[in-house]
Amino acid sequence: MGTHTGREIHLAARPDGWPTVDDFRLVEVAVPEPGPEQVLIRNRYLSVDPYMRGRMDDVKSYLPPFKLDAVLDGGAVGEVVAAGDGVTALSPGDLVLHNFGWREFAVAPVRHVRRVDPPAGVGPSAYLGALGMPGLTAYVGLLDIAGMRPGDRVFVSAAAGAVGSLAGQIAKLRGASRVVGSAGSAAKVARLAELGFDAGFDYHDGPVRDSLKAAAPDGIDVYFDNVGGDHLAAAIDRMRLHGRAALCGMISVYNAGVPVPGPANLPLMIGKRLTLRGFLVLDHDDRRPEFDAEMAGWLADGKIRFDETVVDGIANAPEAFIGMLGGQNTGKMVIHLTG
């Protein structure tokens, strides 16, 4: 492999507001042999995730910013091609999950790689979606952070996305009395009905506050927030006494470029005794064994369905990322690598 090359996506410039394709660069690099305790992986699927936008800014956050003129990191599923000295747990041909994505080949320390074995009927890209970080995020956010209980009324924003679509289905499986979702098109709202949501609305059709009131006339107990902004304000309005919100993401402000004011109705939190709690899935890896078992069972039984928007070729990763930020995906956005 030492004489071979592979392509990868570098950050060429820090975006000013919305990213453009000029903020990225496709680079061809030499592919080294794996060293001791390392494996060489040919990536098959790359993950495209909203949190990556924050790492493109040079600001302090829960993860370090991406470096300029260096490859972007991201979730990926690939096949082990070669193993270095001292590697005994993995062999060529094994399918693995890791965070050295946005490149065709990766040399990774074996301690940062997890072997995966997809259940029957489930493709390997599921480990970037329903069986991966988005699935665990939905599971932990809904059940642990928001503390959803049977009978609760639940509202999920960006409900046709990778996390939101799973959060809504988990809510129904765990006994929610009503699950409402917002999405960005009529087709996505129709998909929510197919996934078992009780009601849905296109947030372009009018003020979110009005649409949510019509979809949840009796109010909501739990809000799973992927959007922030007007969705969060509307949820606070509709929250019942002791309502809880899991703050997972705020994609409405990621590309604003300037600070965005928070909801003007925060004083309602006092009288209603509301809880709004932010969380990172990174802090909840202890929940993975239970999640893995329960999600695998739901998938095997056909109780949970997950959508993917698949884009072919690493050269198209920047366009896929920009499209994901603009809501062009239904379910999980992934890059499929061939060759």
Structure description:
The radius of gyration is 20 Å and the shape is globular. It is 25% helix and 25% strand. The two termini are 15 Å apart. It is an alpha/beta fold. Strands 3, 4, 5, 6, 7, 14 and 15 form a seven-stranded mixed β-sheet that branches. A six-stranded parallel β-sheet has the order 10-9-8-11-12-13, with helices on both faces. β11 (220-225), α6 and β12 (239-247) form a beta-alpha-beta unit. It folds into two domains: 5-128 and 306-336, Alpha-Beta Complex (Quinone Oxidoreductase, Chain A, domain 1); 133-282, Rossmann fold (3-Layer(aba) Sandwich), CATH 3.40.50.
Radius of gyration: 20 Å
- The top-level CATH class of the largest domain is Alpha Beta
The share of residues in helices is 10-25%
Shape: globular
- Can you count the helices? 9
User: For the report, how would you describe the main beta sheet?
Assistant: 7 strands, mixed
Which architecture name of the largest domain does CATH use?
A: Alpha-Beta Complex
- CATH fold description of the largest domain: Quinone Oxidoreductase, Chain A, domain 1
Percent strand equals 25-35%
Mean pLDDT: 94
Number of strands: 15
Judged by helices, strands and strand pairing, the structural class is: alpha/beta
From the N-terminal CA to the C-terminal CA, the straight-line distance is 15 Å
> What sequence of helices (H) and strands (E) makes up the elements?
EEEHEEEEHEHEHEHEHEHEHEHE
CATH superfamily of the largest domain: Medium-chain alcohol dehydrogenases, catalytic domain
The domain tally reads 2
Q: Which regions are unreliable across 5 or more consecutive residues at pLDDT < 50?
A: none
